[in-house]
């Protein structure tokens, strides 16, 4: 019975090892893709510009506030400005989340296309892989930027 258990265990281990060797893993540097993807750079710049506009809004409102003499007028100005600021901040946060989601989904779709073209079984972030895997980062960047619509095999 003991020999049978060892034989079964050996067979299971051999099968698992063979399956693991048959799996082809791709790796991607997600951070590099994000900083090299032209659309992502433009989107992040758009969000940064909106953030700067919000900062300028506060500077302008501060100057206007200092010019008000009446305490009642100051209180009304504060209330109005607070509501406007919160609406602008919320819009900025929604824009940022929407852009990040869109970029992530585009990168995911590109990684899937490259993985399919290269017949990869899985793609992992390079930070999750210590050794091994096929680096597809540059292929994904080329795919996203339109300079390599068909990934190299």
In helices, the fraction of residues equals over 70%
Q: What Rg do the Cα atoms give?
A: 27 Å
- Biggest β-sheet description: 3 strands, parallel
Uncertain residue segments: none
Q: Element order, helices and strands?
A: HEHHHEEH
Strand content: 5-15%
Cα shape: rod-shaped
Helix/strand class:
mainly alpha
Number of helical elements:
5
In the sheet with the most strands, the strands line up as 2-1-3
Question: Would you write up a description of this structure?
Answer:
It contains 5 helices and 3 strands; from the N terminus they run αβαααββα. With 153 residues, the chain is mostly helical. Helix 3 (38-66) runs antiparallel to helix 4 and helix 4 (71-117) crosses helix 5 (137-145). The protein is rod-shaped, with a radius of gyration of 27 Å. 12% of the residues are buried.
Quick summary:
The protein is mainly alpha-helical and 153 residues long.
What are the defining features of this structure?
153 residues, mainly alpha, 3-stranded parallel sheet, 5 helices
Give the SSE layout.
Layout: H1 2-22, E1 25-28, H2 30-36, H3 38-66, H4 71-117, E2 122-125, E3 134-135, H5 137-145
Parallel strand pairs: 1-2, 1-3
Helix pairs in contact: 2-5, 3-4, 4-5
